[in-house]
Amino acid sequence: MKITIDGKACEAEKGEFILQIARRNNIYIPTLCHSDALPGLASCRLCIVKVIDRGRAKIVTSCIFPVSKEVEVVTNDDEIKRMRKNIVMLLKVRCPENKEVDELAKVFGVEEKRVKRFKLDPEENCVLCGLCAKACKELGTGAISTVNRGMYKEVATPYHEPSPECIGCASCANVCPTNAIKVVDKDGERKIWGKKFKMVKCDLCGEYFATEEHVKYAYDRLGVEKPEKLMCSSCKKKVTAKDIKSIFENA
Amino acid sequence: MLIKQQNEDLSGQDVIEKYPKEQRFTLAILQDIQRKYKYIPREALENLAKYLDTPVSRLYGMATFYKALSLTPKGENIITVCDGTACHVAGSMVVLDELEKAIGIGPGETTENLKFSINTVNCIGCCAIAPVMMINDKYYGNLTPKLVEEILSEYRSESDE
Amino acid sequence: MSDKKTVNICCGTGCLAKGSMEVYEEMKAQIAKLGANAEVNVKLKATGCDGLCEKGPVLKIYPDDIAYFKVKVEDVEDVVKKTLMNGEIIEKLLYFETATKQRLRNHKESEFCKRQYKIALRNVGEIDPISLEDYVERGGYKALKKAIGSMKPEDVLEEISKSGLRGRGGAGFPTGRKWKTAADIDTSPIYVVCNGDEGDPGAFMDRSIMEGDPNSVIEGMTLCAYAVGGTNGFAYIRDEYGLAVENMQKAINKAKEENLLGNNILGTDFSFDIQIVRGGGAFVCGESTALMSSIEGMVGEPRAKYIHTTEKGLWGQPTVLNNVETWANVPIIIEKGGDWYHAIGTMEKSKGTKVFSLVGKVKNTGLVEVPMGTTLREIIYDIGGGVLNDRKFKAVQIGGPSGGCLPAEYLDLPVDYDTLVKADSMMGSGGMIVMDDRTCMVDVTRYYLSFLAEESCGKCVPCREGVKRMLEILTDICDGNGKEGDIEELLEICSMTSKASLCSLGKSAPNPVKAAIRYFRDEFEEHINNKRCRAGVCKELTTFGIDEDKCIGCDMCKKNCPADCITGEIKKPHAIDADKCVRCGNCMNICKFNAVKVL
After folding, report:
1. What CATH superfamily classification does C3-111 receive?
2. Backbone torsions φ then ψ of C102, nearest 5 degrees
3. Which positions in chain A touch C305 (Cβ < 8 Å)?
4. Which among A145, A148, A149 has CB closest to B57?
């Protein structure tokens, strides 16, 4: 089937999300909480677009809106631009000193004067997108979650104490769009969410690359014995590339 | 009179066991634990996580999301002040001020000696006698600052026995 | 041969709070004293809410049709000896009609009652809620027997569609259309859910129905299950409603015993059961997807409704969710036919009746049920008796924290889904709060936003951050720190939050703000620019003073001042010491001569 995005006709499968279709057709829609690996949060609302169906327009988040009819989509008219600007303004008010949020604020033209009117917390970096909690649940052990509700909502470990479940995989920090999660790797030790971990070295290059607990967890989950020699992911890529090269050369 | 026993079993096992090991009973089990202990002991939360084979963080998230659940012990006498619109317009804030003056705590707090807890609720449904507060299961309506003080003194003398 | 009489005493939560249980117990004791050979045989019933909560405890005597109000324990002996035994009326307990200044024997002739049309509340206040016999005696379960006995599921759907019934929870979605969507899906299980999470502050319609006539909800849900192929039912009841949970559970148990619920209903192969799920203290769980998340055992965070929950709801299955009041209307629609219901009311697109909880600064506080099309003026003045203490009407808030206030110019607006939305308000669940000149519209707006800030689930930016910052602005304004440009900033945030929020809590959060600014902008500007609160509510912006020309020196204000800041001799004008004054406003409330002013 076909849908129109900003006047451009785009092929679409029934049930596909507008964001996928747009990206495929090189139409840019801004996002913050979207991740191809962890889709579906729809909490930042930055990807909103207008869907016009039988003359009626509604505002939807393109990341999770499934197309089922041949509709017309508008991604960037004045009304949407204004709404996105207000969303980003509120994020800048929440995280006034955050670098990533500041970049967004510049792109959307948020006026300093509006931001300064409010009570600002220079220490806040989290935009509560929910990606970290989702990553921990799906890739890790579910050590962190969102706690409380409304304006008191935050991401934390149970009882705000170092979590026995946390394996120090740092999946949370890796997916965070605003670098709000502090991971300190120093001298073979990692500190994250108030917990200290010992890290393991890559047997090939000698760099520390993961925590002991993470390595154990990964192999337990795979149901495979931990190998004698451990490799970090860049070495694994190099070794695999070498193997593929030799297969081709010896073919 | 809430008497805390030294070796009280805080695991909530008997409550938890009554339910099948399914996610959908999570809230009901937590509420039963809350009813039994007047709060959710950490031990019970962690025990439930094992029972349902779910991360502790999920249960902690639920316990902090739902206001019917509390992670800290509540006072012996729970004062619930209605802050529904009718009560608000009739002066529930004045009632809260008076309570703060009298026992030194605000909504969501518990006195040090665990005698009183105050929480606000949005509409008990007694709008005709606004402003209203409940102490445990008793209703008190048409409150004025003087009345609040009188009512409290009844409870204060009781608990000093 | 003894005279048979029935005494109904309202034991809904509102009257219980006024001591009706003590009255009930005393009546029980007095009746027992009469003994078995008494000339009068008295049956005592604890009923649900009669509706006139302001005048509770309410006691009604049948078949004499006598109604007594504000009954105290001390009055009970007289009621038994004089009225029940001798037919003698106790004048002081009768309903006093302020319009005609007369006492009415049967309050059904009062302005309060005769202008109402009770359909959803047809049994509330008239029956013992947990007595199946009482319910059946008044026509209960006739509809279910008719449906299962002589109607096809499509016929039941047809009657609901014809009736024009729209969701009474607030959104007003056509009920017939919702049911049909589920009925058209061939799968199992199909869920039927009752939304009993009445969270609007000031609304207690659903509570009264669940407490006072639980079978009407149960029968309604069972009829739906029959019509759409429903297999399992859930009644999600707000945690704070203990009595509602208790009565609903007792009614469910009794219905199952009589084969009106559960397996093989009325001996057929139609089976449907209802489980009660208690809420956890979260207003957001009144939103349908959040409610379903809660039933599934998760936090009550809403989800996108791009695919309707009627198609994919609980555990991904078709789910028909309706409000308590909607369910209560279903049995009588099936019994009397959709056309009968369709003919009620005077509005094109809103049919039937609506229950309102009329509260706030109104004389007759309570529950009223009126045909669609009744004007606000009729509800507030004719039925409600007008503004409390005859103060000046300022506004009426309809739709709770998702609705908007309407000023006096709109009193002739008819009650109707679409008309109210056009005026920047909404029907909502039916909470109607009357406000007088001592209500500050800025403070009320701030109050609604602080409620929403507490209750927001916090998932999406427009609601969590938008409501938080709007609350910050309004709190600043009420504290005397309003800044130039604040009104524009409020409206700017509103414009985004109303469209970009994930769920209807966020989308409707701007409504009270927009309505208040639309109709009371000058009050906002006065707070910001003149640092004055004309209603005398915002303490930082209020200074009370006494008009010497109006003050007669009755001393009432001085006697009731908690801060001892009023001076003056009797029969001489009094004065307020502004430095000692705590701004409680008691003096202004008490003064019968309009002598206390906000300077």
Report:
1. Glutaredoxin (3.40.30.10)
2. -120, 155
3. none
4. A145
